[in-house]
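Q: What would this complex look like in 3D?
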Amino acid sequence: MKIEDVPQDESALKDFTNELCYAKDENGRYTTTKSKGWNVKKTALDETWNDIEKQKQIALEEVKTGISSPIKYYMIKSLMDLQILSAYTGFWKITIKRHFKPSVFSKLNEARLKKYASVFNVSVAELKNPK
Amino acid sequence: MKEFKHIQSAHCENGVTSNLMNFYGVKGITEPLAFGIGSGLFYIHIPFLKINGGPAISYRSFPGVIFKRTSKLLNVPIVSKKFNSEEKAMDYLDELLEEGRATGCQVGVYNLPYFAPEYRFHFNAHNIIVYGKKGDDYLISDPTMEVKTVLTRAELQLVRFAKGPLAPKGHLYLPQKKVIAQVDISQAIKKGIKKNYKFMYKSPVAFVGLSGIGYTAKQITKWRAKLGVRKAGLYLGQIIRMQEEIGTGGGGFRYIYAAFLEEAHAYIPDDALLDLSNDFTKSGDLWRNTAVAMAQVLKGRKTEQSDFLEISERLKEIEALERATFKKIGNLSFV
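A: Here is my prediction, written as structure tokens for the whole assembly.
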């Protein structure tokens, strides 16, 4: 890639930083240059976030209709999966899956609720009633 | 305090390695040299494993490996530690900083406040240097950023003990106090190239190294029927992010390796190195073109099975080109 071909597309990096890239100068030698971003990467990142947003909406709907507990919603909102949530809470994956059930969630003791709330960075009240 | 020089890099661990070497008196280890000596080119597609609900593909080896290999080949003795206790991990770092010793740390990016929010996923293989303390603030050199920054003790502790896959567990690393003044860079380059040749070209495992690229090419042809267009597109999106974003692993890494071979030529006057450098530049261009094609599917502009087959063919083309390139590397006098 030549320096003049290094993409300079506006991206989420704006106001944070520029990326460093390796490209060839006019003499065909490698040098470094800055890039503001690349539309291809922006697409991949944007679509990932769109997908997360969609999953979040579905999970919230499931809380409202009593299909699943808020734990699943907050897990998605925090960009986690069962493995990561298990690592942060110290609960087994299978235990967390049980907590996805509203009937099990409603009987959770205060200590477990607090644990979840602290991992998700919300209060216990917010944990119980996501908006 | 000895002044710490922050030089931005394309890839975090290269930058940490290069800047630490420079700080400890091993001069001339640029980012491309750190990457090449540390045998940074890698590929793995782990079958049946999912990451974030998508394919488990990595273009980079385990965090800390580039630093470890580069140090070893340059005969620089190192300290590398992980911790069970968060307090002990912070106290140990404080002791090092007290002695004026800049230290490499593995961190998670989810809670990294100076990162753009859109980039904060649970990705735990990021590397930064902590080079000092000012009051309660830790002085940070993150080589992927243009300028130095700071983190509070609580912030630094949180990212050093991020949880999940590749959890850093407070992992820190740095050269030992006494750095050996005599380093043989050309010898290190030769060994680094040889090692990278081994695990890209000679890997006996079907989903590691060049064969791994072919494995991914084959998988992609099945995704549309198995997952539907949208999900299959998101899988491609995950490849783009692994390839060009998180570790600058596809095109980005090829250009760094091409730059490395060009620099290597100054130490080892074999013109074959320049020829190989051109091959990796071509390969980098192909990786980037493939990412462009994958983005078209992800956006929903291309949705046919033939589009997936085309992407698969592009990956096979890359595999073939890199196979030919590595074969030439195998013919170098020192490999």
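A: To summarize the key features: Chain A touches chain B at residues 1, 12-24, 29-30, 32, 34, 38-41, 43-45, 47-49, 51, 79-81, 83-84, 87-88 (CB under 8 Å). The longest strand of chain A covers residues 19-24.
Q: Very helpful, thank you.
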